Amino acid sequence: KIVDLSREFLDTNGCSKSQEVKITHLDELKEETPAFNEENLLKILSDKNVASQKGLLEMFDSSIGATTVAMPLGGKYQQTLMEGSVQTLPIIGAKDIETVSLASWGFDAEISKQNSLLGASYAVVESVAKIVAMGGDYKNIRFSFQEYFEKLGQNPEKWGKPLASLLGAYDAQINFGLAAIGGKDSMSGTYQDMNVPPTLISFACANGEKSNIISPEFKNEGNKVYFFNHIAQENGLPNYDALKNIYEFIFENIKAGKIVSVKTVKEGGVAVALAKMSFGNRLGADITVDDASALLGKRIGSLIIESKEELSSVNLQLIGQVVANEVLTINNLQTSILQL
User: Fold this and answer.
1) Where are the alpha helices (DSSP H) in the chain?
2) Radius of gyration of the chain, Cα coordinates, nearest whole angstrom
3) Which residues lie below 8 Å from residue 302, measured CB to CB, with a gap of 6+?
4) Which residues pair with 263 in a beta bridge?
5) Domain that holds residue 141
6) Which of 5, 149, 323, 336 is a good FRET partner for 19, with 20 to 30 A between their CA atoms?
7) How far apart are CA 158 and CA 236, in angstroms?
8) 259-264 and 303-307: which strand pairing?
9) In the Cβ-directed half-sphere of 20, how many Cα atoms lie within 13 Å?
């Protein structure tokens, strides 16, 4: 025998410990949404969190191993970033493998700095939305959480930050009906008087079918463009019922061949998401969005959907269609795709 421990001993989970915790840092989320105009759109697109990372991506060969289903950058011009990773299973001697693994991540430092409970909740939502956008079934997802916090010591208020993050992530898991099966934490994010923001990064993994995988660039002229506008609950938490309904709807319509691309919305709002969808094949769109605050505002959980056919859902707004020219028109503002 190498090891022989009683089940009774393992069930004790080691020595019991206790720590006083105070949650005092949960602020109401504040975000200044700039007015929608060409200057602000170009400014946001040039932000390091939004701009293309093609140069960095090309330092790595994604084709090694011949398992890659979705390349990191999609479209004829390879300029629309994929929502995550999709790989076939590396089985020796197998041919025509249909089962794939999908992986994505979610985290927003600005939200987490203001409110780590909401930050963790939206990290989970973002990672799930990306899996759905690639053609995965959200019900197959399992999570792994990477946590990183300042040195805690015995300070109850500092301990409140990871506790709030874990509660936010746990609430998201319960509402989605999905489990975290792994994770790692570090409490060493302090250097002199500098601390990392409360960090809980959600990594989502799921199995899927290769035939259902889609990429986020616009596909064809005349296709309809829809907007799912995620509106949070009054307490700021994600509207999980609306999210689950639209995720199921999207998955079924991807399988039916109606939905051909989906893009998640984050920094820069709807306008940036539309711009990124236009880059891959240099197809423009003629778009009208009634909620002007959504154009450049952060809307984690929201989605832009391209469909070959009309979609019937109370959760979706038809906002326009794909056009053949290289011009993106949003609320009458015309911008050349090459300029973007």
Assistant:
1) 7-10, 38-45, 54-57, 109-114, 116-133, 156-176, 240-255, 269-279, 293-296
2) 21
3) 227, 228, 229, 230, 264, 265, 270, 294
4) 304
5) 38-48+59-336
6) 5
7) 22
8) antiparallel
9) 4
pLDDT digits (tens, 9 = 90+) for 38-92: 999 999 999 988 988 888 888 888 877 678 888 889 999 999 999 999 999 888 8
> Looking at the domain assignment, is residue 4 inside a domain?
no
**By CB neighbour count within 10 A (0-12 exposed, 13-18 middle, 19+ buried), where does 140 fall?**
middle
Residue 55 is predicted with a pLDDT of: 84
Q: Report yes or no on 98 lying in a domain.
A: yes
Three-class SS of residue 88? strand
Is the CB of residue 201 less than 8 Å from the CB of residue 112?
A: no
> How many whole angstroms separate alpha carbon 28 and alpha carbon 21?
20
CB 37 within 8 Å of CB 45:
no
Please, what sign has the CA dihedral across residues 144, 150, 152, 153?
A: positive
Number of structural domains (the chain) is 1
- Are the C-beta atoms of residues 168 and 145 closer than 8 Å to each other? no
Tokens 């409110």 map to which residue?
115
Q: Which tokens in the block code for residue 196?
A: 């990392």
54 domain-assigned = no
276: left (phi over 0), alpha (psi -120 to 50) or beta: alpha
Residue 23 lies in a domain: no
The token pair at 53 is 């990372």
Distance CA 273, CA 264 (A): 7
| Residues facing residue 183 across a β-bridge | 145
How far is it, in rounded angstroms, from Cα 273 to Cα 243?
A: 18
**Rounded Cα gap, residues 133 and 154, in angstroms:** 42
CB 305 within 8 A of CB 316: yes
Tell whether the model's pLDDT for residue 274 goes beyond 90. Answer: yes
CATH number of the domain at 97, please. Answer: 3.30.1330.10
Q: Which of 169, 130, 117, 128 is CA-nearest to residue 146?
A: 169
